[in-house]
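Researcher: I'm preparing a figure for a lab meeting and need a structural model of a single chain. I don't have an experimental structure, so a prediction will have to do for now. The sequence is pasted below. Please return the structure as tokens so I can convert it later.
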Amino acid sequence: MVKVTFRDQDGGARPASGPGGFPLGAGITLADLDHDPHPFLARLRAAEPVSWLPALHGWLVTRHDLAVAVMRDSAAFTVDDPRFSTARVVGPSMLSLDGAAHGRHRGAFVKGFSRAEIQDRLAGFVVAHADRLVAAIRPDGAADLRLSERALGELWSAENLERLARTYWRFLSRVTLGLVRVRYTEAQRFVVLLCRPLTLLVFCAPEYELEADHGVVRWRIQRGLLVARAGRESKGHLQIEVRRLPERPSEGRREPSERHSGEPSQEPTEKPTGERTHQPTQTPTGERTQQPTRTPTGEPDGDVRSVSLHIEVEVANFHPAIASGLSLRLYNATQSRIHVIVTHGFLRSLARLDLAESRVGRLVAT
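Model: Understood. Here is the structure written out token by token.
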């Protein structure tokens, strides 16, 4: 898009006369151009690529080839317009001068912005920054699981952290109807499509961390068909983190008499992000009441001390081959989206506390 000023025979600048015959341009206001100009410019480009706009008191060229022709013809057109606000503020510059004068001002900048110069100076930085942006893609999901303190005490062990890791792989295989499988060696885990030649991902053997209120199982990414060359043997990883949440003043042991009409029940539902919410129930008269529920141990939740366990699945510093070789948009619509769906399904399945037996048994208590 170029706003045009014609040059007359004496070298002065003046707008060309005769606005008639440009109905689209005549109907465009400054508000149209300020708020969302693109629909108006598209209509001009299609029907009036050179148009007179009274709102600008000037000609507007919106088609690329015509705009290039105008900008290259300093004999017929000029940027030296006394109404040009930039020139009035900063004085003469390559933005407000034509011909040789423009060339003198522009010459000081040409070399530094040539393709070869930019390639030499900035290519490494741009590639490295792009790699950092791709590595920062962190598809993940999280959920809070409410259970009795006694149940958590029974579950909180290194052996069950290892079983939680196995449960993730079991769920992945089940949700893909057995097409995606995990093969184990002492040092690695292979995520394959049916068999080893089609290895989607290769992880190092898992690392485990377990503290009094925090546990992590982490698989470091090595390589695979889904991993871009830049991400092989990098710091990328898949991890499951569990954390006991600090109690809020209103949590903990509660007697049944403390519950009252209008308080939501503990029926869990799942948000798209994996968060749990509570849905109130209603009596036939329309009053909302609290329905007694049970913890995963089968005890009424009003009569035992309950705690919240935060569970999060995260992929970090992962270089997806689809994003690097094809497009980030395609990766977000396919592989990343599938990961999110699988993660949310896995988190929902944990409400049953059905942990798979470990295939390795590295942390089994003896």
